[in-house]
Specification:
- The chain has 71 residues and is mainly beta.
- The chain has a 3-stranded antiparallel β-sheet with strand order 1-3-4. The protein has a two-stranded antiparallel ribbon with strand order 2-5.
- Strand 3 and strand 4 form a beta hairpin.
Length: 71
């Protein structure tokens, strides 16, 4: 986690979800933005939607990477 500066000191933007079992946020600092998704349920969750009302993400291509847990 120490190698991801955005997780330590980045600005926090909460995302809306359509499933209360999912917590979603963005942590942004300088050129690094990390989307944090946490399953608050003991079961696998699929088919959820995320909504970002004001974009904290610049236009571009993004690649998912699992940092902790299972992807």
């Amino acid at each position: 986690r120490k190698q991801y500066h955005a997780l330590q000191t980045g600005a926090l933007t909460l995302l809306e979800t359509d499933n209360s079992a999912i917590f979603a946020s963005l942590r942004s600092e300088d050129r690094q933005t990390i989307m944090v998704l946490i399953n608050l349920s003991s079961k696998s969750v699929t088919g959820y939607k995320l909504k970002l009302t004001q974009s904290a993400l610049p236009n571009g291509a993004y690649s998912p990477e699992t940092i902790f847990g299972q992807g």
